[in-house]
Amino acid sequence: MKNTIWITGAEGKLGSELVGRLSADVGNKIIGTDIDVDITDSKAVLQHAEVYRPTVIINCASISNAEYCEAHMVEAFKVNALGARNLATAARHVNAKIIQLSTDDIFAGNNQQIGMTEYDIPLPNTVYGKSKLAGENYVRELNPKHLIVRSSWVYGFGKDDYFSYVYEKGQSGTPFEAAVDNISSPTSAKGLANLINSLIEQSEYGIYHASSEGSCTRAEFAKAILAKTGMDISLVKEVKKNEEGVVTSTLLENLMLKMTGIYEMRDWEAGLDDFVSTLKK
Question: What is the mean pLDDT of residues 229-246?
Fold first, then answer.
């Protein structure tokens, strides 16, 4: 076997994409876990690592619903920070590389239309962002063989997924609100899985931003989803979510990918076209 890869959160939108993508290489042995291994239980995590001896651990397990995190701070930090700590420790114990999935929410969103690079200092202002940054810090401190991959507005299918939310509204003909003052780069789970596959094959470590190129508002993203799936874009009711006309932007600049030339992320609309095409097969 070339790689034994343990994927946590394997039933989520990104985890399931990774299982499918990485399983296509017969040289990989894929171990996918979800609620069957509690990443907040350090003993259970270490035991699983000792039994299967992974060469790579990819942590996709996360509580990503921002409103839920605000209302359940202890649980959010327990999963997003403590879970990452346990996996980083276990990875080091078996000499494995750890790939930690992170988010644009580690930035406050104050820099309008300016892409934040890997060298900018994070300053999250939400429980979700703070807990994910804490997870990043544990991974960096506890395992030198780490990759932290930050992305934005990752979509696919499943719970708390924006594409699924919009698609269901379109199918039922139900009007819904979408923000015109929140900007980022929609990134498909499929595209992100392809990038992670490329990184596994490289001797690269550190932090990588991996968002689709280009940007849009939530409302523009919602309209694009409906238009490309042949549904009614008038269902989108444009609203301002932020006070005093402030526009929040969590654009990520994929600086490390561009400097190393490892991988080129696609434009967000091209990625959406590719994702929608899978629905029609």
Answer: 91
Please, how many CA atoms are within 13 Å of residue 242, restricted to the half-sphere of its CB? 15
pTM over 0.90: yes
Contact 62, 45 (CB under 8 A): no
Q: What is the pLDDT of residues 83-99, one digit of tens each?
A: 999 999 999 999 999 99
Q: How far apart are CA 271 and CA 186, in angstroms?
A: 9
Helix (H) or strand (E) holding 248: strand 248-249
Sheet holding 216-217, edge to edge: 216-217, 182-184, 248-249
- Over residues 105-136, the pLDDT tens digits come to 999 887 666 799 999 999 999 999 999 999 99
